[in-house]
Fold each of these.
Amino acid sequence: MLVPEKQTVYPEYMPDELVRVRRESRQDQLLGYLRQHSDLRILDLRPALSEAKAKNRIYHRTDTHWNDVGAFTAYQAIVRALGEDFPEMQPLPATEFEVVPSRTHAGDLAVMLGLHATLTEEELNLRPRAPLQARLADGSAVSKSTVGNPGQYVSERKGEGLPRLVMLSDSFATVFIPFLAEHFSRGVYRWDIKTSPSIDAERSALIEAERPNIVILEMVERFLMTPPPTSFSGRAQQ
């Protein structure tokens, strides 16, 4: 699963003097190749995000990352795609959440501009109207703050017949993990898309040990310049 860059979703805000060299992006090239030459299930989030942006702001103004609303849109698209193989899996409806604006510090774009001490961000937070059920292994709630730093996290949720998940991801996943965790009896989320023989071996060992029903690789578009993992030899359950 590739996460579109902010400028991919909002090209209308780019300066006129920045002209695209070609119409086909790296994301287009990769997705087209994988669809022709692999049996990987590829999720293109661009259509869902393009539709969602007409209703709400889905990326932060002062940051390259999406906000809760954008992440929730991606989460719903993920679960709908998984529902093709797991029909009982249906995304949580947006009506179960309340959009709560809050003022917070500016994001990475402001830092790049040297304006982080001047600008602030109006963050759009999705607050569940009823408590979510998944918990981290230590019993704490799964939230973007508890899974917001690089590392590996494990969520658990009671429920008959729920599948198991391993997800390898970057920082964009931290915002939708709390929603996604609701659908799995056990989820292992590893913030890591770097690649090397030793890292790939660790990933394969993780998948072999967890025996998940589903493995997701999430990566933001900018990291197409960084090679993804070269090996997923661990076996997922059929």
Amino acid sequence: MRRNKLKHFLLLFSMLSVLAFFTFYTFRIDLTEDNRYSISPYTVQLMRNLNQPVHITLYLNGDLNPAFHRLRKATTDIIDDLSKHTRFAVSTTHINPSQAGTEEERLQIFSDLAERGLTPTEVYMRDKEGKSMRKIIFPWIEIETDTRKIAVPLLKNLRNKS
């Protein structure tokens, strides 16, 4: 009986230890053949050499279909992985350009983004009633430091491929 209690205690203790370990330490294993989810050694070195904070604005937010939810999740995971390799903070902001008070404000936001080179993508989705609807999304991130700001597309241009 006493031996049984000891086994149960050790099992419980080991399970709690593993749970506590993985709560504070996260990692991902990239099993893809081309290592598409791995950060290259060059990128790690680049992040370590940063001498100022970085702010990343992700414009892929809001009511999205499952494919774009996965893209947003993968993007935030990569940003989190990159932030582990820098001495300075990597802050992120998630913006839904479609969410504005009025239609005029929304069109102004779209115009401002387009002027900066962030071209929108039209997505056709079904709403809860099954009706087809068109959404305009901006699958882009902007990476900004004190001295520089660049826009990075999250999708390849596949206009002629559809």
Amino acid sequence: MTVKTGAAWSGVIVCLDSTGALSTPSVGPVGALYVDGTVNAASVTVTGSNPYKWTVTLPSLTAGQRVSMYITATIATIATAAVVAEESADTVLVSDVKTDTAAILADTGTDGVVVADFTTAAKALIEAEVDDSLGSGTGTSLTAIPWNAAWDAEVQSECTDALNAYDPPTDTEMDAGFDALPTAAENADAVWDELISGHTTTGSMADELSDVDEDVWGYTTRTLTASAAATTSTVSGSSITATRGDTLTASLTALGNISSRSKLWFTVKEETEDADSASIVQIEETLGLLYINGAAAGTAANGSITVTDATTGALTITLKPAETDDLAVGQYKYDIQQLTSGGVVTTLTSGIFEVVADITKAVA
């Protein structure tokens, strides 16, 4: 609760003896008003008979002052005293505001009146006034705004400051900037040097280029642009086709890392259980041609294995026509096997080795 100047401040007290029972004082009760801890001369009236009501009309107060009601009485020969109530003062109370508001509503005749929604007519009126002020949308009324030399000078000053702050590049700086750009040739080199692995989106040029070898060899019907004489052998998947009497040149890739090999063999047999000495063809990388048609080869140099990439396992097998012309037409089995420096034997690939007939028998 908050009190103010001139307000009637009141409260109720009871007098009890040491046992807690109601007891009428022999002297009192008497009240005294204190303002900020100092006794005030305002008269305190005490009425009734246990309980008692005290009442005082508050003196002039300022906001924030503290008022206290101090009561004394003698009960059962014992003098007692207590502060029974305290409040803070303010200059205006909520009740005053409500009273003044009610008076305003009564004076204006708006008590209980609900303000209606903003009407379309009112909106149109305001829009018309604004439109007139702006010259019906043409802005002609803006010309009525005064313009003078001081304004002109201020605008020019701001423009000058902005231009002074602007630092455009010099001709030398522009040339240096353009010189730093890559040339057409450099752009072309960068495009061709870009790794295909970074461009794998289906249908992209890089994707098409990376698939071209598989697409060519996987195509059902294809035409060789080389002549028949130049086509000495064919590798399709794991199958090798050799033409009898022609130089056999068969390139195989992606056999795996063969960097640790100590020996590498290419062997063709009629039956897998045949001894190596019965091989149709056996070539070792370092020794050359070992066996041909089940017999020891007469010229080791007529057969060779050339490793073109040991990391990926790419190699080329070559057998000269002096040896292929002795091969019988038919289908055989082949494999490529390595012995590592650690003594591990691994078959890298295997498949069908087919010898097809030639027409011309001459080889020299």
